[in-house]
Amino acid sequence: MVVQPGAAVGRVRSSAIRDLLAVAERPDVVSLAGGLPAPESFPVAAIADATARILAADAGRALQYSTTEGYEPLRAWIAGRHRVHPDRVLITQGSQQALDLVVRTLLDPGARVALVDPGYLGAIQVLHLAAAELVGLPDDGTGIDLGAVARARPDAVYVVPNFHNPTGATLRCRRELIALAEQEGFLLIEDDPYPDLRWAGTAPPARDSDHVVTLGSFSKVLAPGLRVGYLVAPAALIRPLAIVKQALDLNTGTLAQRIVHAVVTEPWFLTSHLASIRTRYRQRAEALTRGLRDTLGLDVAVPDGGMFVWTHLGVDTSALLPLAVAEGVAFVPGAAFAVDRPDPGALRLSFATADPEHLALGVERLARAVHALSRRSAKMPAAYPGPNAPARRPTVA
To answer: Is the pTM of this model over 0.85?
Structure first.
């Protein structure tokens, strides 16, 4: 008898982003695909120094099993940033595990979960794995259509308040959505890994509520390889969430938690480190959007933060991808983020990993791929219209 995968595997489609990483890591390819932080932004010296100090002072406990809820000093530091008691914080293996824990613990199979369409692919995977019923909702310009939320009558709503992945939008109706969650009785899951990457505009104001669970991560501000994230939830939910986490992994890596705490609590470190990251990403966002405007004629604005630009081309971007890779540039087609309404002309571009020079090169290669597809399909003029051509479709940045 041949062992076969269970039914859960059939509910999850492979991540187009993860599948692209092998291609994107080729030295001849400019990757605008995965949302990978810039390696040069990793605080290597601070991490190395913290590791040495921890191991010299307390190696036995730093390398030992720890409590499932997490390293208490780190929980207290996170609680201070969120203005809650430390007993409302649970440390996780990145925010992806935090989302998985929330869905496994608080939602039953078949639960109706509403989210903006297009949506974050990692969340879509977790929700499908849990056999949730996904309801794709439009963004009416405030981040999510509140009327559509109410009509959907969901058990839970999933949002990315700051710089939604993939569109980069900010949830302007955050407080109104929390009020609606309290009124209608649904769970609001706020996946918020990007708030520290804002260099313009204002963050949507939050409000504490027993109907809200907030997910966070140190992957975007320190290093994803540490795999340290967290969730902030009503105190009554932490115990059941911890029980499920016990069944999965016992506890998040003790040494990694202690390293994160030592680094973020170093006097003045975080202020200067975040300022450096914001400056780097702003410059890269400006380089990418400038290239899209000048080379492809797209009407795309510089985002206020985050790691992504969402835009549209007058071609099928799934068909465009292999031609782009052949030219030496990778991106993620918009259809990969579809909840139930694929947008074939959309694509997500990340400006975080490549420097401005390579971003400009990547856009030039993308333009050549568009030209090649246009000639092949004969649906657009054989000659590429050039940098001063008008935008082909309205753009969302």
So the answer is: yes
